[in-house]
Amino acid sequence: MKQTVKANLNSLFKQDKEDYTAEVTIISHKSDTEVVAEYQGVRYWAIYNRNTGEYFVNDLDGKVKPGQKVLLVCPDRSAHVKEIWDINDLRKLLHAPYEVISSLRLHSPFCMAMKEEYINIGLPVNEVGSWISFSDENCLNVEGDVVLLKRKIVPGPAGEIVIGMTEEDVRCLVEHFDLDLVLEDEQE
Q1: 10 Å Cβ neighbour count for 68?
Q2: Cα angle value 50/54/59 (rounded, 5°)
Q3: Global confidence as pTM
Q4: Element holding 23 (H helix, E strand)
Q5: 127 and 77 in contact (C-beta within 8 Å)?
Q6: Per-residue three-class SS string for 119-182
Q7: What is the pLDDT of residue 101?
Q8: What's the mean pLDDT in 106-111?
């Protein structure tokens, strides 16, 4: 849910003004103290000071690369388009350590992220995730939410990167798995 707040932009403009604040829109929370804020159409990393309740927009070097769209699929077959900035954001979406699997039932470059097996104790079964992971053959159901995403394995320290889904990718997955797409406006 997007929210508009006042933020200190001194570090952004490096001006000598004593107080330079402006309204920014909080796009997402990366952690308790780090957020993505949009100012004049550009997204920046910003810091939230819990003690004072103030937001500080980072330098121009803190510009945020565009987030990548992924599809969060819940056990009730609802699908939510989410935005992540790197593969580590999946932990936040799934609320737990995760593993990413490729499957013959989900053609490359698509793959699925799910909670690690040992965490799946008593959560609702996710039929889509279970089908993708061949649970009909191996008898291990996937529980809880799963994330469908596109990724690319790259040489070097990056290892793997998330490739954003297009609207067409989302539409095809929603139709293929007969999901109920929940639009952002409906989530609030």
Answers
A1: 20
A2: 110
A3: 0.67
A4: strand 21-29
A5: yes
A6: HCCCCCECHHHHHHCCHHHHCCCCECCEEEEEEEECCCCCCEEEECCCHHHHHHHHHHCCCEEE
A7: 87
A8: 89
